[in-house]
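Notebook B, p. 112. Complex prediction, attempt 2.
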Amino acid sequence: AQSVTQLGSHVSVSEGALVLLRCNYSSSVPPYLFWYVQYPNQGLQLLLKYTSAATLVKGINGFEAEFKKSETSFHLTKPSAHMRDAAEYFCAVSDGAGNTGKLIFGQGTTLQVKP
Amino acid sequence: DADVTQTPRNRITKTGKRIMLECSQTKGHDRMYWYRQDPGLGLRLIYYSFDVKDINKGEISDGYSVSRQAQAKFSLSLESAIPNQTALYFCATSDPGQARGYTFGSGTRLTVV
């Protein structure tokens, strides 16, 4: 069965600093991987997704993620944090069994951006 | 109008009461999902539906039931609410295929007292 682990429930960076949010997955089949962002009092919004094309995926708001099969990782990065990036971020993996389309989510990482 | 609309946005109910959370979508997607979000646990799947006649349990379906009234409507019911069902509930939709990802509603914050 697929699973996702997000390392660090809370990450704090200074404005302008590098953002790195870690995600490791477990999957018995080639996975599809997703990063979602949740701003306060809102639903989840898709940031980017990996679907077996390019291993470096660019998303919205300057975020990108790199799929590394050997490390079973899909870490999210942004070169320079903005105050508006403060939110909760979720990594998710598709359930490969039977093409159900189900997503399995990690525990979430709260990003704090300090001025 | 939002693609996926959840009602109500907030609800406080008493233990033992029956409550229904509603979800409607204008995306034309066949697949609909109900998740609950708890701090530190991420999102966990309660039920999902591929079409009106195809409803499936997720990992935490106990204490919940659903109804797919139409392609566009998917309701979640708590037959007898209990305090540990206090959570943020999300409805989501998707097209068939693993690569699509979801479109989420804005969520319903439910408090059971």
